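REQUEST ID: PR-0412
SUBMITTED BY: lab tech R.K.
PRIORITY: routine
TASK: structure prediction, single protein chain
INPUT:
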Amino acid sequence: MTSSPASQADAQIQERLQAKQYREAFGILLPHYRDRVFRLTFSMLRDRTVAEDTTQDIFLRIWRALPGFAGQSQLSTWIYAISKNACLSELRKRRPQVSLDTDEEQQSAEVRALASEDADDSATVSVGQLLEQLPERYRQAVVLFYMEDKSYEQTAASLGLPLGTVKALLHRARKRLIELTKDAA
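STATUS: complete
OUTPUT:
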């Protein structure tokens, strides 16, 4: 049975970490996780510029924390936890501020641009617009489970939620997405 490219990359990273080759491990980790971390960051922060800055900060945190990674969890779960915490910190910093400059139309345009970067068809754009309308907890679960191809268990571990809660969130998110597609039609 062949392993997936993701698990092969994670295995290479683990080998480098065990050999205390942190620079080499980070050299594999960065291109492998860059887009995933950015998508997660953008889905939580909903501001492309802030998401780009926060993504850079996240990889700086990962670089500093690499020597302490003990391998008690999957590498992707560890990276997701760092990413989620960085986003939550950024959201706490921004909470008291009310921006009158950013309008809904601009945010929607940014989501469409993000969704269409690698897309050939307009269906992806619609998915991005629909995801934007989901509550935060639903969106996080959907991004991890469907877009990052995590299992129920991995999604639950990444979100720090019980397995049943994740299944319920995904079920509700699917129902809400169906409602949204009917409304859009």
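NOTES: The mean pLDDT is 80.
REVIEWED BY: pending
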